[in-house]
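Section 4.2 – Deliverable D4.2 (structural model, holo form)

The reporting period included a commitment to supply a predicted holo structure for the target in complex with adenosine-5'-triphosphate. Inputs used:
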Amino acid sequence: MTECPECGRAIEKQNLIEGEIFPCPDCGLELEVTSLAPFRVDTAPREAEDWGE
Amino acid sequence: MSETFTLGLFYTVIRPEEKWILEAAANRGIPVERLHDEAVTFPLVRNGFHADLVLNRSVSHSRSMYALRFFEHYGVPTVNAYDVVALCGDKVLTSLRLSEAGVPTPETVVALTPEAALKALDEVGYPAVLKPPVGSWGRLMAKVDDREEAEQIIEHKTALGSSMHSIFYVQEYVPKPERDLRVLVVGDEVVAAMYRFSKEWRTNAARGATTEPLVPSPELSELALRASEAVGGGVLAVDLMESPEGLVVHEVNHTPEFKALSGATGVDVASKIVDYAAEVARR
Ligand SMILES: Nc1ncnc2c1ncn2[C@@H]1O[C@H](COP(=O)(O)OP(=O)(O)OP(=O)(O)O)[C@@H](O)[C@H]1O
Ligand SMILES: [Zn+2]
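Output (structure tokens):
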């Protein structure tokens, strides 16, 4: 278990995988799984000008 | 599928789309080599990676461009191909190619300086739409209602300073209904299609448009396939608008998101993409 860097909400590993992004269930901030063992999350990378589909 | 290959997944972040692609590969027993665009290094001579084909899911246009060129250089096929991404990632080049292929597309005028941009807007007439040549998700696009607004917007863009902001892609404003159409083409197959509804003139799913599945008419399918073929083919999302004169293609997306499309239609787009990648790898 780890916590949201923004609001401190506990984040469980569940079936998340490395690199996965998901919103914090409490504050909604986009988070990224940066490591599985140990389980770590960080703020998701910020959208740059050349990002898109 | 009998002979397996290793699928390289070049990515920035794992969104639902990438997670489904990983799952689809796992279900087929296809090993995946994950290639994080923030971590991979590219020597001139291929070294230390195993993928037989690379599926590009990076959201960064500049990272995609260099990476795909390197994979091509290493003799590794990619989905999509470098040339396709180069073309579709640039609205100017896309418009040129669509026009060359006779695919109906909105009237567009390109200007290379702020002064010429004003002229281009006058030529196209108001309202007009100003788009950055590279960019997506409806970002930095402006609807320009009159000359006064044109001057303000151009001044603002010029102040942003970067060289890409001084290329002006000016397009007629298409008075469409409150929706546009997205058709996903994989290889030579139309895989799924949907409407995107919005009260706002921009109907990007990324901007919160609502979606509805759509059974493509033969005309729509044919047009989407022609647009896809015109840019070189692959996994492509063709975006169209209903203009008073009929359907027009306004862009072709080279690394399409498909969460909304899969949600709206129930089509397992990720599996279609993985099967297509496997097919390309076998060629
Ligand atoms: N010429 C136009 N007239 C009217 N509406 C337009 C025009 N061009 C684009 N739009 C609307 O704005 C939306 C975004 O345009 P466009 O697809 O060109 O931008 P984008 O940033 O590349 O979007 P994305 O890559 O996410 O599809 C379109 O879905 C369409 O609804
Ligand atoms: Zn939080």
